Every structure is written in structure tokens, then in C-alpha cells.
Here is the input.
Amino acid sequence: MSRIRNRPLSADDLRAFGEELDAIRAKVQADVGPRDARYIRRVVARVRWTGVAGRALLFLGAFVHVALIPAWIAGTLLLGLSKILENMELGHNVIHGQFDWMNDPKLNGKTYEWDIVATSANWRKTHNFQHHTYTNVRGMDDDIGYGLLRIFPEQRWRPFYLMQPAIAVVFALLFQWGVAIQDLRIGRLFAGKMKPGELRKAFRPVGRKMGKQLLKDYVVFPLLAGPFFLPVLLGNLVANGMRNVWTYTIIFCGHFTADAEVFPKEVIRNESRGHWYLRQLRGSSNITGGKLIDMLSGDLSHQIEHHFYPDLPANRYAEIAVDVKAICARYGQHYNTGSLPRQFGQVIWRILRHALPSRPRVRRAREEAVA
Here is the structure.
């Protein structure tokens, strides 16, 4: 349960709260331009050249045996960095439509396809629409535990959750695969709510994307190394694992810290703009750490600002955060932020604690407090 006591807001307070936050959006939108275009093009260049350098070093190590180990380590790290930047700083932000105004077909949020096994079309549905519209609303936001984990006591406990500490580790290592199948809702098949033919039809575009990624990383590039294909294949495998674990860590820190809240479906009934902002604030968590964390997280270190303004260029979030934090303080609302070790430590605690059943009285009290 959140340890923070937020000040109750009247209807007038909520209206003013929403208007002040809307004003920030309008101000930034009016200023979007060349500065933001330079930013995203620099990101594209970083992704490209770290990827090229990483793959070149993997090949160097394969053909120059004396350099095998140092070149493999450096190459794998650079390739992993490229994949992290492409996933977090480039793909995620572009798919949100943050740079559609540039009219660059390579940076169009409706057509961009990123370097993971998940299709961007499914991500636009499960993330851009469902998650950002119904953030932390039980039964409407599938990101709450991803159908695998019990993160909050309001989620009904089942014996299956006893295994979740181990499941969470596997999920982190294979995170892109979990994202890929999220919209397939495979559980509906076992519950008798979906026919096998429906699942096969939904899987076709996902299967094509999976095949393309597997072919690229684990067949084409390794085979280019000839008899030394194994170090290159292993480098690609580790780089993908680095990206998976990092993405999992950042996303889970964004919504599952100790002070993050979940909400019943009733909260979205006749939800005002001010209420919507309040729900985004109370369901999100920021990460401190400066420009390096901002870059590596795709600016999801400013998860609160991202949920307020998902279609504004992410490079603006750090400066926006100053005003957002001041507004939250003025209205007596907790602005949840902390270092990466602190926030992720709270996520781990949630995963371990809620693998076990909650006491009924505690669960009822939380549900009443959230409602």
C-alpha cells in the first residue's frame, strides 16, 4: 500500500490541476521544431553506428583469434547498447508519434517497425492505446503483471503465483517474446473463449516478425562469419538478452514501485481531465540519474511526464519535469521519483511479497482506499 498521503482535491482543484498541465502541453507543442529533429536524428545515428561497430568487433574477434575475447566483449556490449537505444530511445518514442510532424517516412509512428520480435502494430494497440488510456486500471491494463505476475494485493491470488520469483527472472530474459505474444491473449484459448483458428490468424503477422528477427540475428550474421559463426551467434544472443533485461527493468520501475497505485474500473466512469492526470501521476514512477539514464531509458526515467504527454518529443521531458513537479507540490500530490536501485528494489519486493497470499482484511482495506 502506498505510504504517501495525497491531499484530497475538490472539483475546482481538479479542474485547475488539469488546466495547468494542459498549458504545459500547449507551450511545448508550440515550440517543437528543429531542435527536436536534430535530437532524433542524432539518436538514429547512435543506433546505426554503435550497431555497426558492435557487429564489426564481433567479426574481428572471429577472424583475429588473438583479439577474440576483448573484441567479443566490446562488440557484444556495443551491439547491446545499439539494441537498447533502438528499442527505448528510438522505437518506443517514434511509435508514439512524437516525430510525425517531421513528415519523415522513416520516423513515422504508424509505419515504424522496430528491432524486436514484437510487431509495432500490436504494440500500438496494447501500449499506446490500452496501457496509456487505462493506466493501472485492473482488468483493462494488461501491463499489470502481463498475465504472469501478481504485483499488487488487489490482484486475486492463485497457487500459480508461488512460482513468480522464478517466472519473473525468465520473463526479464525473454521480455521481447512476452511483449510479442501479449496481444494474442493465449489464455483465452485454454479458457475456451478463443478458437484455435482465431489464434492462428492472429499469430501470422507475429510469426513472420519472429522469423525475420531470428533469421537476422541467429542465421544471417553468424553465417557471414563462416566457421566462426558460434561467437557471433552468442554475441547476438547476449546483446538481445541485455536489451530484454534492461527494458524489463525500466518498464517495471515505471509502474510497480511501492508508491504506485492500481485502480478499479469504476474510476474511469465520467473521468475528467484532471482525474485522468491524477491517475497517471499516482500510477507512474520516475527514475533519477541524469542524462545517461534519460538516454538509455528513452526518457522513461520521466515516466510521469511520458504518461502526461506521450506524443511530445521525449527529449523535452527533463525540462517539463521541473514545472510538473512544482504543480504537483502546489496541489499536495506526491511526485514519485527515486534512484534506479531504489525503484527496482521496490519492484523486486513486490514480486516476492505478492507471490504469497495477502491477508483478506489488508486486501479489502486497499481496495476501499483505491476506490
About this structure: Residues 362-371 have pLDDT under 50 and may be disordered. The chain has one domain: 11-370. Residues 28 and 277 are 17 Å apart (CA to CA).
